């Protein structure tokens, strides 16, 4: 049966059973085909709203649309509506969620607040193919920032950029020279950004590029600024070349002696955009 429907709601697309997403409510007029049947584990589902009224399942433009509450409850998921944010939260017992907009799996421990903090330098990145190391015009966004954004999309935390008062040179070679001097002097570069509510966070992901086979000194400045006792700290880093691996956590553990420092991940800068599967596997293996 073909119908003409005006929708003023948030609707969950078929095949997604667990999600967290924010939406802006808009009016849309669409042409639909109704009368679609839904079966869960071989049993027919008769979807209804919170008041027990029947709700249609329909298709439009080749996509099947299912009522979020009915499907979630049929699958044993908890569902909540946040009116202030126009947001539907659907959660499984494991606390794992999936982003209905991007399709990225989110692994978020129930009841824990997460911060994804990162230090990332913009400019050239020698010798990445296609990057001009002299003019530094080819890398407007740092690889570590991109990795931090990927991780944050999966864990649903708050993203925070660690920024130094004195910017690093856009030219890669000049940056390595500055980084070497800071390392030799055991410097603590002054930071221009600060986390005012660090006490509220239970889990801190800390990201950085690998400089001179070690942690950049701005990370020392950041971690020494706060008391992270009892918190879970999870490092992630980018490096020049090679494969995805596990970084040496010794420096981070020394900086956070009273924290639970978990196994980190190390991703080549040139592979950040294709690292989602590896990052997701790493996150799924963490106990935080």
Structure characterization notes:
The protein is of the alpha/beta class. The chain folds into two domains: 2-101, no CATH class; 114-284, Rossmann fold (3-Layer(aba) Sandwich). It has helices at residues 68-74, 143-155, 172-184, 217-225, 250-255, 276-284; strands at residues 2-7, 12-13, 20-22, 28-34, 38-40, 43-45, 58-60, 63-66, 78-82, 87-91, 96-98, 105-107, 114-118, 158-161, 203-209, 232-239, 260-261, 265-268. Strands 13, 14, 15, 16, 17 and 18 form a six-stranded parallel β-sheet that branches. A five-stranded antiparallel β-sheet has the order 1-4-7-8-2. The radius of gyration is 23 Å and the shape is elongated. Mean pLDDT is 77; it is low at 1-24, 94-105 and 126-139.
Structural descriptors:
elongated; five-stranded antiparallel beta sheet; disordered N terminus; alpha/beta; six-stranded parallel beta sheet; 288 residues; 18 strands; 2 domains; 6 helices; 20% helix; Rossmann fold; 27% strand
Note the topology.
Layout: E1 2-7, E2 12-13, E3 20-22, E4 28-34, E5 38-40, E6 43-45, E7 58-60, E8 63-66, H1 68-74, E9 78-82, E10 87-91, E11 96-98, E12 105-107, E13 114-118, H2 143-155, E14 158-161, H3 172-184, E15 203-209, H4 217-225, E16 232-239, H5 250-255, E17 260-261, E18 265-268, H6 276-284
Parallel strand pairs: 13-14, 13-15, 15-16, 16-17, 16-18
Antiparallel strand pairs: 1-4, 2-8, 3-10, 4-7, 5-6, 7-8, 9-10, 11-12
